[in-house]
């Protein structure tokens, strides 16, 4: 493919919460960019580095040996200044000073909201979805989700061993902000008895206490309850269980372990495919788009349209989790 567009020099940044596979994406953007004859500049620390002009040329070798590493070698940030019109005006001016014809933004929906506003100031952008939460409406998959889920799976397997041995009830909190994708998939993968997610209102008596009592009457001796961080407080839930049935649940909050680690094959491959697709869009002169995964294919969607798209938890996945917890 020949570069027929006016885009000759691009920037790339990672923004928001880091996700395993961000490095695989940065590497693929740099290598694909150079392959197609572009100059590629790395912007440090997300929008904070753009505002600080922390922008440096990247070479084929500057992305050697990063594919298997978690985190992001470009670093990342949450940037309050970029949320202000003045901050974004300054960011757009800096992009022009560095003669960046377009910026590839690797991050979550917050980063894309910022990207859209930046594009409205005349800076062409492309978004690559990367967040462990898998909560971006326009794409079925976000880079980092599979690695985080595998980390959660390993942790719950271990907690399950001790829960079984002591015939306990364990409550495990997983990340996901206001989304329950990590929790629900972990509940299925780890055979949890109960799963609470923000998308499905619950009643402690009907959805927690009664299933525990019914499980006991069927001979269950231990219980795993997976709670999405946006669903409820694990401490409050533990107190309610103790008060009602006299059992003191053990609470584990998995926390930041979920964001680290070497990316899985799925995250490496999807990061590579999405990033090459992003560069190819630019080479064709297609800007202001979000790269998405739909029906096993990598596609690109108009940024404005992408921001209006929503997705929801598959009710049959919820049912599957319930059926298998019997
Ligand atoms: P993520 O991209 O992982 O969802 P955040 O929501 O923290 O993470 O967003 C990353 C950064 O994107 C924020 O720190 C901010 O600089 C920028 N951003 C987020 N939302 C907006 C918004 N509505 N307007 C402008 N900038 C935003
Ligand atoms: O979006 C990724 C995520 O890890 C969420 O699951 C979590 O709620 C949030 O980021 C935590 O953010 P911070 O790094 O600001 O504590």
Describe this structure in words.
Helix 1 packs parallel to helix 9 and helix 2 packs across helix 3. Strands 3-2-1-4-5-10-11 form a seven-stranded mixed β-sheet, with helices on both faces. The radius of gyration is 22 Å and the shape is elongated. 47% of the residues are buried. Strand 4 (102-107), helix 4 and strand 5 form a beta-alpha-beta unit. Helices cover 42% and strands 17% of the residues. The protein is α/β, with parallel strands linked by helices and 326 residues long. The chain has helices at residues 22-35, 46-52, 85-97, 109-119, 145-165, 181-190, 204-217, 234-245, 265-283, 303-308, 315-324; strands at 9-14, 39-43, 55-57, 102-107, 125-129, 169-174, 194-196, 223-228, 250-253, 289-294, 297-302. The protein is built from eleven helices and eleven strands. The longest helix is centred in the middle third of the chain and has 21 residues, at 145-165.
- Poorly predicted runs are none
Mean pLDDT: 97
Radius of gyration: 22 Å
Total helical elements: 11
Q: Please summarize the sheet with the most strands.
A: 7 strands, mixed
Percentage of residues in DSSP E strands: 15-25%
Shape, please? elongated
Helix content: 40-55%
| Multimerization status | single chain
Largest sheet strand order? 3-2-1-4-5-10-11
Bound molecules: adenosine-5'-diphosphate, 6-O-phosphono-beta-D-fructofuranose
Give, in order, the helices and strands: EHEHEHEHEHEHEHEHEHEEHH
Q: End-to-end distance, in Å? A: 55 Å
Q: How many DSSP E strands?
A: 11
**Category from helices, strands and their pairing:** alpha/beta
